[in-house]
Amino acid sequence: MEIERKYLLKKLPESLDTYKHYDIEQAYLADKPVVRVRKRISYDKKEFFLTVKSTGMIKREEVETSISEDTYNTFLNESVGNIITKTRYLIPLDNSLKIELDVFKGVFEGVIMAEVEFPDEASADRFTPPDYFSDEVTFDKRFHNSNMSTMSDEDISDLITFVHMS
Predict the structure, then answer these.
(1) Rounded to whole angstroms, how far apart are CA atoms 76 and 96?
(2) Which residues does the annotation mark as catalytic?
(3) What is each CA distance from 7 to 28, 29, 106, 113, in whole angstroms?
(4) According to DSSP H, which parts of 8-120 are helical?
(5) DSSP type of residue 33
(6) What is the Cα–Cα distance from 87 to 62, expressed in whole angstroms?
(7) Three-class secondary structure of residue 165 per DSSP
(8) What pairs with residue 49 in β-bridges?
């Protein structure tokens, strides 16, 4: 079970590059349920995953399994829409929580979003975001990566404009 809230940022935290981070490339094969393949590259390794997610905004089922690079490439060639690329920074918070801060690249350059995952819904409800967070976008479908993967150039431009005006 994945329980998460998503936010835009007023500004980036200081010393961002001091936090653990890795690059992500992901593509989508289906949207109901969401089926995604992801490549995660850190300084010392490459990992590949196939993920299936149920529908939902703040809470949804998620099943992830490791796959080979060849399998990833096969699925990548079968994907539809925009390939999402980003750098993810892992920033610790109190109460054993962490921020997964995504700095998007490629066609979504300029979008920066933070996700916080919670052990239960009560923790998610009690959460007070850090001062550098701005608008919560948990319930805005435009900010689900699976929806971003199907956006037209015009929709992408509108999203980036919205992010910069927030």
Answers:
(1) 34
(2) 28
(3) 22, 25, 20, 6
(4) 69-78
(5) T
(6) 21
(7) helix
(8) 38, 66
Per-residue pLDDT of the chain (166 residues; tens, 9 = 90+): 889 999 999 999 889 989 999 999 999 999 889 999 999 999 889 999 999 998 877 888 889 999 999 999 999 999 989 999 999 999 999 878 999 999 999 999 999 999 999 999 999 999 999 999 999 999 999 999 999 999 999 999 999 999 988 7
Rounded Cα–Cα distance for residues 134 and 11 (Å):
9
Q: Return the structure tokens found at 25.
A: 């490339």
Domains of the chain by start residue, with CATH: 2-165 (2.40.320.10)
Helix (H) or strand (E) holding 156: helix 153-165
93: closest CA among 10, 8, 19, 37? 19
CB 8 within 8 A of CB 133: yes
Q: Give the 3-state secondary structure of residue 73.
A: helix
- The pTM for the full model equals 0.93
Q: Cα–Cα distances in Å, from 104 out to 40, 91, 161?
A: 14, 17, 14
Largest CA distance in the chain: 43
